[in-house]
Amino acid sequence: MKEMRTEDAVGQILCHDLTQIIKGVTKDARFRKGHVIRAEDVPVLLSMGKDHIFVWENDETMLHENDAAEILRQLCQNEYMTASEPKEGKIELTALVDGVFQVDESRFDKVNELDDVTIATLPQNMPVKAGQKLAGMRVIPLVIKKDKMEQVKKVAGSEPLLRLRPYRQNLKVGVVTTGTEVFLGRIEDTFTPVIASKLKAFGLTINEHRLSDDVAEHTQKHIEELIDLGMDMVICTGGMSVDPDDRTPAAIRDAGAEIVTYGAPTLPGAMFLLGYVQKDGREIPVMGLPGCVMYAGRTIFDLILPRVITGEKITRREIRHFGIGGLCMNCKVCHYPVCGFQH
């Protein structure tokens, strides 16, 4: 690449896109990389403020920004993503399906720590819709050394840096609503409709529903029954606090669940429970939901549910990391998942 006066550049080949901005009319590339400059282009270039331009000068040790962006795309793109054509040295990735977007943070950060390379993505574990933009990437200079991009590839490793976990379809969901007052009909069950609404957002319904009093053995029996019926997920509502008559955690444990966590550093949702039951080669997530899920706009359940639907097994360490950003700001207008309450 070399710089020269625009008036002297007729016949030369542009080595990068040139954007023309006319307020209220256009902001787009007026001349594309590879364009052979003609005499009639010179006045237009000058009107764009291009008294000097950069034209292609063959150098086997360098890569053009578009070619370098293509390397970054190869390092990032995974299944269920589509890529844009390079434009002004930038490539964007878009979701092909609904799912949960994830980044291999350790390797990703190492790549972004390198000079002249930049990749920006949506937040970690963000639920996304098909057609939603996931990431954009580019190198900073117009040309970059090939050796530098080889270093980038070495740091990134062989596996894609990004991942989109699609939601599993046709999952069977069982719900156990606990509480003697609900079981005996003293009050209306207002918790289950909330769960049904949240499941509906992912195309799911409640396949089996059981009511249980506050006797732990009865709740345990219902959980086991739902698992035997082939439920892919069991959700228990109520009885999750530390009061003596709140016995749902014990019932989940006695039903054979290996408890990942009882309690989470999120507000709302501190008394959340997650466990997994092994049954006939399957691993069934069982969740205990505290009362806040019934009345709060967003809770830990909204963070966990999308990932459970993808089939991901969530670890205790991940949940314990929720504390950073785990305080919902209770905005008057909720913008979740475009907010800080996101992991």
Please tell me about this protein's structure:
This protein is elongated. Strands 15-14-16-19-18-17 form a six-stranded mixed β-sheet, sandwiched between helices. The chain has a four-stranded antiparallel β-sheet with strand order 6-7-11-9. The chain has a three-stranded antiparallel β-sheet with strand order 10-8-13, with helices on one face. Helix 2 (65-76) packs parallel to helix 4 (146-156) and helix 7 crosses helix 8 (248-254). It has three domains: 2-55, Molybdopterin biosynthesis moea protein, domain 2 (Alpha-Beta Complex); 62-166, Aldehyde Oxidoreductase, domain 3; 173-323, Molybdenum Cofactor Biosythetic Enzyme, Chain A. The two termini are 43 Å apart. The protein contains eleven helices and 19 strands. The chain has helices at residues 41-47, 65-76, 105-112, 146-156, 180-183, 191-200, 216-228, 248-254, 292-295, 300-310, 316-320, and strands at residues 2-5, 18-22, 26-31, 52-55, 62-64, 81-83, 90-95, 99-103, 117-121, 126-128, 133-139, 143-145, 162-166, 173-178, 206-212, 233-237, 258-262, 273-279, 282-289. The longest helix is centred in the middle third of the chain and has 13 residues, at 216-228. Strand 2 (18-22) and strand 3 (26-31) form a beta hairpin. With 343 residues, it is α+β, with helices and mostly antiparallel strands. The chain is 27% helix and 28% strand.
